[in-house]
Amino acid sequence: MENSIETTNIEIAIAVLFGSLMLALIGVFMFLMVIIYQKRKINAIREQQQLIVQYEQAVLKAKVEIREETLKYVGQELHDNVGQVLSLIKLYLSRPDTQRKADVGQLIDQAIKDIRLLSHDLNINRVEQYSLNDFIEQELNKVLKAGIVKISFENQGFCEPTSFHDRLMISRIFQECINNILKHADAKHIIVKLVAEDGGCALSIADDGIGFESDSTLKGAGLNNIYDRVRLIGGRIEIMSSPGDGTKVILRIPQE
């Protein structure tokens, strides 16, 4: 009888000990889970903060680059167009001729028109003032005016990022794509489409230039900024090209 009682007490003690051990293990497990959760939460907050900082830095860089592009364009226009017109006016005025008064008047009108257009383009806040469609049209008109390539632009549906900063980033991405075409593609024709899609928009930029085939060429062409900016606005980009068949870039833009 006593042996039976002792055995029962031992079993109870073992059960209590086992139960206590299990509770301790569960407690330790829960404690570790809480620590892991807190670390993941802290890491997630840090990553989000870093992403915000990267986004703000990219926006600031895009503003500076657009300002530089605008000033460069204005400088070229002043030298190539307005400067030439004023030189002709000076030439005509140095040789007084009543028959050329009308020509001088036309040249002065042309110079005034060119300066007004440059004043309009010099407004570096135009990305904020105009829609994405209007900005693309203005940039393409500049390229067309240079007479280097033919331009086609098609707009289907309503495509307009709600965030000004996103529009700024997309505008700069578009400028970089066009600049890459002009610098590297040796293209005769650029085709641009801005199309509304479910949940967003697609901006495609295609050319009939020399094309390329390797991933290393993509990186060598200085497209890292484009990839970074696409990531920061939550978009996606596809670049398709092959030697002799030109290049096509499709930027998919989220739109609320």
Structure explained in plain terms:
It is a single chain. The protein is an alpha+beta fold and 256 residues long. Helix content is 66%, strand content 15%. The protein has a five-stranded mixed beta sheet, with helices on one face. Helix 1 runs antiparallel to helix 2 (101-121) and helix 5 packs antiparallel against helix 7. The longest helix has 93 residues, at 2-94. The protein is elongated.
Q: Helix and strand string, N-terminal first?
A: HHHHEHEEHHEE
Average pLDDT, rounded to a whole number, is 80
The percent of residues in helical segments reads 55-70%
| Computed structural class | alpha+beta
- Terminal Cα span: 80 Å
Q: Give the neighbour order of strands across the main sheet.
A: 1-2-3-5-4
Number of helices: 7
- As a percent range, the share of strand residues is 5-15%
Number of DSSP E strands = 5
Query: What is the overall shape?
Result: elongated
Radius of gyration: 32 Å
| Main sheet characteristics | 5 strands, mixed
* Low-confidence spans: none
